Amino acid sequence: MYDEITMIHVLRGRIGEEQFTYSFTRSGGPGGQNVNKVNTRVTLWFELEASSVLTDDEKRMIHARIGGRITNDGRLHIVSMRHRTQLANRKAAVERFYELLAAALRPRTIRKATKVPRRSRERRLDEKKASGERKRLRGKRSVGRLDD
Fold first, then answer.
1. Which residues does 43 contact at the CB level (< 8 Å), separation at least 6?
2. C-alpha torsion 19→22→28→32, nearest 10
3. Domain count, the chain
4. pLDDT tens digits for 50-71?
5. Read out DSSP for 53-90?
6. For residues 45 and 51, what is the distance between their CA atoms, to the nearest angstrom?
7. Is residue 124 part of a domain?
8. I need a surface site. Which of 34, 86, 101, 146 has the fewest CB within 10 A?
């Protein structure tokens, strides 16, 4: 279908930032005295269930793959508190949102079962025989002569 970067661009075109709501709180981490005064932690909220730009199949895929980030009322949330400014954290949350959605919507590759090579099977059986022989030789030995 699409590679990861193309998928992110497609999602940006379909899901505009006007569909996001944000909440801001104080965050830990770097920032000095600023940390105690400014609400730099950003939580991005996206109404997944109410979204009309995603199909029902896409919503199911998102629920299956990143369901832990979705609340009971169908809202997807992303938290960013890595940066010292609210604007930087807001941008980081938006980027993370598009990356997560692109990863969740990427089709999974199906593993093809391969046949075990004949030489590998033979080598395994040879090793088993050698191991069995070693163990057999560890058994009790009969004494050939009698003690006087």
1. 22, 23, 24, 25, 77, 78, 79, 93
2. 110
3. 1
4. 888 888 888 888 889 888 888 8
5. SS-HHHHHHHHHHHGGGB-TTSEEEEEE-SSSSHHHHH
6. 12
7. no
8. 146
